[in-house]
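#help-structures

NK: newbie question. if I give both the sequence and a SMILES, will the prediction place the ligand too? trying with 2-acetamido-2-deoxy-beta-D-glucopyranose
OV: yes, paste both and it writes out the complex. here, I ran yours:
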Amino acid sequence: MRSFIGLAGLAVCSSVVLAAPTSMESRASCAFSGPTGAASVLKTKTQCSTIVLSNVAVPAGTTLDLTGLNEGTNVIFEGTTTFGYTEWLGPLVSVSGTNITVEGASGAVLNGDGSRWWDGKGSNGGKKKPKFFAAHDLKSSTISSLKITNSPVQVFSIDGAETLNLESITIDNLAGDTTGAHNTDAFDIGDSDGVTITNATVQNQDDCLAVNSGTNIIFTGGTCSGGHGLSIGSVGGRSDNTVNTVHIENSTIKNSQNGVRIKTVSGATGSVSGVTYRDITLENISNYGIVIEQDYENGSPTGKPTTGVPITDLTIDGVTGSVANDATDVYILCGKGSCSNWTWEGVSLTGGKKSSKCENIPTGASC
Ligand SMILES: *[C@@H]1O[C@H](CO)[C@@H](O)[C@H](O)[C@H]1NC(C)=O
Ligand SMILES: *[C@@H]1O[C@H](CO)[C@@H](O)[C@H](O)[C@H]1NC(C)=O
Ligand SMILES: *[C@@H]1O[C@H](CO)[C@@H](O)[C@H](O)[C@H]1NC(C)=O
Ligand SMILES: *[C@@H]1O[C@H](CO)[C@@H](O)[C@H](O)[C@H]1NC(C)=O
Ligand SMILES: *[C@@H]1O[C@H](CO)[C@@H](O)[C@H](O)[C@H]1NC(C)=O
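OV: that's the protein plus ligand as structure tokens.
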């Protein structure tokens, strides 16, 4: 069974693989551009040590498929990458492999031209919309200096990663604020060990970061605007429901619904442990400065916390700034005994209301 799958997977390019020299040094630098670029890269990608994608116009309903690259391949985007329009689920771009680098050259943009799909419904209905960038099963790899604009819906889906760095990524969905962009999460992380996101600049309409599961996740030096905040969760109800060791530090969240957010799913099991939010600055937050709740069901809070996904060893250290005057500074809704061993210091939020609905606040924390 195993060898059959291997052969089937290689069938398309097996003659190339057998004929090509095996050492990395002797593989070529390959350049692709225009409307045929995506089809050509699919055919020849495993012959290239460097793949330059220059002004590629990806046809409607197809993925710019950079999966299964040879170990050590470098991918460089140049100019403007565009994508044809059809209703489908994407992704527009997909990359996998080991020791891969993906970088944007100076001035390079991946433009989703999302307005063709935006209908205010995001992934909850209306037009079928393609997710943008699947970064699945990347090991010891780096994605840097990419600029992504006008994503139809979610931007980065990071899954099955082992040691993946995302450096200086810019996501600019500002145009969607007034024209119906929705669920444009910047970085969704699941099932990953060792994801570091440094110096991201995000303007979007959903979570800036959403960690659904994974361990050793770092988000630092980020600026998030327009969205739903820096989030853990919702945790529970998936195949992997463990979040462990996450550091979200040195970041600013402005003009967003929430700042710091942890949400777990009602009635589900799992765990959230060792999460640290440190040195986070908030500005003009419309709902909650800090919100931690154990009552999510089908994407909405029920108001009734359950205890199956405990939140332990949480550190909130240095969350400062202001929220809008009809917002709430801090909201904590825990089940009985399912939030414990929290460190809570340097929380100084102004401008909003105090919540009277907090429950089971662990020692040290306060609403
Ligand atoms: C990663 O790939 C680069 C070439 O892009 C190579 O120089 C380097 O040795 C590789 N590193 C590892 C750990 O394989
Ligand atoms: C992130 O930005 C800081 C401040 O500009 C800079 O010192 C650091 O080198 C950057 N890190 C990366 C990985 O780009
Ligand atoms: C946040 O910034 C401080 C001070 O520059 C630095 O010591 C710390 O390592 C940074 N945090 C992360 C996760 O990089
Ligand atoms: C505050 O943030 C909201 C979005 O939550 C935005 O509509 C509004 O323009 C922002 N206000 C200022 C003064 O930036
Ligand atoms: C409490 O949390 C800290 C880290 O936040 C951790 O080092 C410690 O082991 C935890 N203690 C218990 C009893 O779980």
